[in-house]
Amino acid sequence: MKRYYLHEILFCYILITIMNCCTFTPSKLEEALVLSGENRCELEKVLKHYSACDDSLKLKAAEFLIENMPGHYTLRGKTIDHYREIIDKDSISSYYYKKILDISLSHFVSSGEDSQIQEDLRYITSDFLIRHIDLSFELLYKYSWLDMIAFDEFLEYVLPYRFENERLDLWRDSLHVYASNMPSEKVGDYFTNSLSGLIAKFKLKESTQMNLQIRRTLLDINSLGDCYLNAQNNLFEQRSLGIPAMIDYIPCYANRNGYHYWCNEPSVLFNKNHLELVFDRKPGKIYRKTFLKNKIIKPKGDEYIPEFFCDPFKKDVTDLYCPTVDLEVEANKMIRDSPVHVYLSVFNNLSWKSIAIGEVKNENACFPKMTRNTVYLPIYYRTKDNIQAYNYPFILNFKGEKEYLIPDTGKIQKIRLFRKNPQNYNSVVFYFKRLKKCFVKGSSTQAFNDADTVFQFAQTPLQEIISVNNLKDKTYQWYKIYSPEQSHIAEIYFYDENGNLLQAKVDEQYSMLLDDDPLTFTVLNEFNPLVINFGHPVKLSKLVCLPRSDGNGIYPDNTYELFYFDLDGWKSLGMKMSNDFYLEYDNVSSNALYWLRNWTTGVEERIFTYQNGVQKFW
Question: Has domain 413-423+554-617 been given CATH number 2.30.29?
Answer without folding.
Answer: no
